[in-house]
Write a structure and sequence with these properties.
Layout lengths: L1 H10 L9 E3 L6 H8 L5 E6 L5 E6 L2 E7 L3 H15 L2 E8 L5 H10 L4 E6 L2
Parallel strand pairs: 1-6, 4-5, 5-6
Antiparallel strand pairs: 2-3, 3-4
């Protein structure tokens, strides 16, 4: 009985904060989401840094890394790096492919409160 409760709460995680969420088509590649989320009036896509790394979307306030939620650790690390390199706040856009992907949001929340999280619902 207790185990089922733990599984229920682990799989149906609700983020601590309400994050800005956009709904987009499912089954697309990462570039599709970057292109449709990072409009030219909002930010610059594929901003090239001096070390040849690229920020997916650089805005007035944020250095944003896009990735599918399963790659949460990679996206968080890149966002922190890009934030340091640009002097902007680090941010990630996690692309959720299923409701169970919310567990990855919890992991990003735990590693750093400095990372702004945005969500794309693609299911």
């Amino acid at each position: 009985m207790i185990l089922s409760g733990v599984l229920y709460f682990g799989l149906n995680y609700v983020p601590k904060k309400l994050y800005e969420t956009q709904t987009m088509s499912a089954g697309k590649n990462e570039a599709y989401y970057v292109t449709n989320w990072c409009h030219p009036s909002f930010g610059q896509r594929e901003f090239l840094l001096w070390d040849k790394t690229r920020v997916d979307c650089l805005t007035k306030d944020y250095a944003i890394e896009f990735d599918f939620a399963k790659k949460w650790a990679e996206s968080a690390g890149q966002a922190l790096y890009y934030g340091k390199m640009t002097g902007k706040k680090p941010a990630v856009v996690l692309i959720l492919e299923a409701p169970s992907d919310l567990k990855y949001v919890k992991r990003v929340e735990k590693i750093s409160s400095d990372i702004q999280i945005f969500l794309v619902k693609a299911f």
